[in-house]
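Supplementary material to the annual report.
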Amino acid sequence: MELLADAWRYVLDNPERVREAVVVHLQLSLAALALAIAIFVPIGVLVSRSGRVGAGLLGAVAAVRVVPSLAALFLLYSVMGTGFEPALVALTLLAGPPIVINTDAGLRNVDAAVLENARGLGMNPFQVFARVQAPIALPVAIAGVRSAAVEIVSSAALAAFIGVRGLGIFITSGLTLDRYEVLLVGAIPITLMALLAESGLGLAERVLTPPTA
Amino acid sequence: MDELRFDYLFENWREVLVMAGDHLRLCLAAVGLALVVAVPLGMVAARFRGLTLPILSLLGVIYTVPSLAFLTFLIPTPLGIGRDNALVVLTAYAQLFLVRNIVAGLRGVDASTLEAAQGIGMTPWQVFQRVRWPLALPVVLAGIRTAFVSTISLATIAGWINAGGLGPLLFNGISRDQPPMILAGAVAIVALALLSDAVLRVAERWTAAARAQRAGAR
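Predicted assembly:
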């Protein structure tokens, strides 16, 4: 309890530093998530519509999933140096597998009879996709985005090791300085952000799930 | 853009191998400990329907806590920094995969099969031990595989609090600005994860095949 009070005092004493770390952390996380959605949702759509090539791509994606986030960050550091950009690239790549896998699964699991009906009503292929298949697949795709978002927020903390001054810096410097209260200034908001991303997108998922007949 | 250089890995492969062995030991201990907790927890969650969702939700929340933060929260406790801290964190993260699959495996056993076992006079314990658990085993093993591969990845981060393993290659590589050292660590971790995944897949297929054979012999 006293440790919490000390952590809060640290925040009050260093408002500028804390504010900047929160901003950097959010910028990095949101930019990575936006990039990942822009890149990997279309790839997921592609995978769901192309038989053998799709299966190959899905295999490659599954292999990426095995790469630990820390290793991904440090590998990009060793080719791009320290800073925001290598972290952004690493986090975007890490978010890929859940988004591709869930977008593909969502689209593929739409009942063939439903699509057939839509075609029967005279919809063109684009309309079938945009008005029928995509809305039905949306909750599953969002579940993928949710896993990706949690992964990104967690890994954004690790980006402190390659010189990104997000909330992770309080954790790395807190241990070096042997000051527990500084550790908590990083660890508590990071945890809250991850839980918020999880519950917020979980809610979106439930709201968008069509009621089962 | 620097090129990727593998010289550290080639020159120090013995050391890397020793560190990989240490990494594997930490992960084996963590998943072993995790199973001791997860098997009874999974049995309870499978048996009492009202508890399934609360237990799995709680484990989901634990899994959501970022690993760096989780390790950090335990530093002020008596666990401090080092292997004990890492062991607790890795054990906690593995629960979600293990319990989820134990529940799915136990629930997935056909009710008529269980009734037939009761019908031939087996006691509840015998039904569990001879019929239900063996039938659930492949699903449980799949959970162990997922948990193990994720533990290998997470144990890397535990290198930061002196828990050993392959993580120090990455952290020392950064602090000494030695990209080939980082590359050696990354390659070794990914290889270890892929290898574990492959070995455990074989184990899964092997138990399924052994069961089919025994069924055939009857």
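The mean pLDDT of chain B is 90.
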